[in-house]
Amino acid sequence: MKNWQCLQTSLAAGAVLSSELEVTARTPLVVRHEQGESLLVHCEAACVWARQMGAGAPVQETIRTPVTLRPSLEEYPTATVLRQARGRIHLHLPDPRTVEAVDLDPEQVLAACRETGTHGVVLWSAAGAGRLRVRVFTTSLGGAEDTATGGAVLGVARLLGADGARGEYLALQGPGDVERQGHLRIRIGDDGVLLGGEVLALMSGELRAQ
Questions:
Q1: Is position 21 within any domain?
Q2: Tens-digit pLDDT profile for residues 9-44
Q3: Angle formed at CA 171 by CA 6 and CA 117, multiple of 5 degrees
Q4: How far are the Cα atoms of 61, 115, 121, 149, 177 from residue 110, in angstroms, in the given order?
Q5: Domain range spanning residue 96?
Q6: Residue 82 domain-assigned?
Q7: What is the per-residue pLDDT across 118-140, written as a single tens digit (0 to 9) for each?
């Protein structure tokens, strides 16, 4: 089985390569995956930023919120699907409290994704100046909630950009327990969107062929 592109891994790879190659800040490096688009990655202090290369804008469509999600989201009859390498159902909710109050069972998520041909459900809202609250439930975890999902947060950035938003945002993703939340950054400009995150090296070593 081939692995799909992992944006968080790409950010870490950018940090390691920049250090090993001793490149200057903001020097772009290309990170390629077995599947998915190549990424242009660069470092700015402790933050690494990635931009998808050659990727056209994903197809955006408005759908009726899948029936299996409505017990928890009956007040929100429509959702947005972004069709990309891993398409997801996006629901823009009014505030972080509403995002955190949603209770989705993994089977609800899997059924909704089968119905729509997608790979996850993304709930999000603005959370004050320059902040977003995001929760992502993904088929790769059997419908359970993920802590940090780069592609999903990048999708939120694209939706914001399409509505005219510009600037940088910090996305707080995961359950209500702040100790279990992931922090990802997005940068929205006239030339597209970038995903960023701080990378901390915990250990180093060498791999040697036997």
A1: no
A2: 666 665 565 665 566 667 777 777 666 667 778 888
A3: 50
A4: 20, 9, 9, 17, 24
A5: 59-192
A6: yes
A7: 999 999 999 989 999 999 999 99
